[in-house]
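pasting for the record
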Amino acid sequence: MTVLKAITFDLDDTLWDNHGVMLRTEEGHYRWLLDALSAWRAARQEPALALEPVNGGQDYLQRRLQLAKDVPDRRGDFTWLRLRALEAQLEAQGLTRSGALLWAAAAMNEFHRLRIQVTPHPEATGLLTALAERYQLAAITNGNIHLARQPLAAHFPVAIAAGELLAPKPDPTPFLTALARLNVVPECAMHVGDSWEEDILPAQQLGMHAVWIAAAGDEVLPPRVHRIAHIKDLPSVLKLLENDV
């Protein structure tokens, strides 16, 4: 039996609940942009832009979706998609190219400020601290949270932003990149995540153990796959694997 040496973690909806965070971030950074631009243009006695949170936000979303289709290699690089969509929207509103670049970048600074305001599950810090004494740890995320600024960054000496690799999960590249940096073969590693398609299947297909955070079901799980309801239940899976060695 192979001995487990490393554990990789998804972040959003694995180590914290992410739904409310994204709603606040999505609405907050765009409203900040419109308010700041309105004040700036008013001070310069320039007319207001024909944008407001609902119609402007929908246009912003559609531009991102279209960009992901037009430039498929960038479909998982959410920061790039947002920047380009905002730049195009602002230029369409009559801003100069340099002005659109400046304001889009400022809006993305606000996006990242809001995006890192996550609250890890109460058990997460103690769990990761204990695990780090026995295993190498890494984070693998499709999200565009600034990994170095997120609350649990100190626990992950290896952190992979899959979108920046232009290979979002379920592409095996981010998993293989993490394993290479950890110098661990897949059979000696485990991945923990909430998405069956993006976390569990690719990890299992590479030969890793996988722990799926999901509600209980009656389907038969593939070999090396375990299911738990919450990250706090992870030690029970590790104990089970240790007893099998």
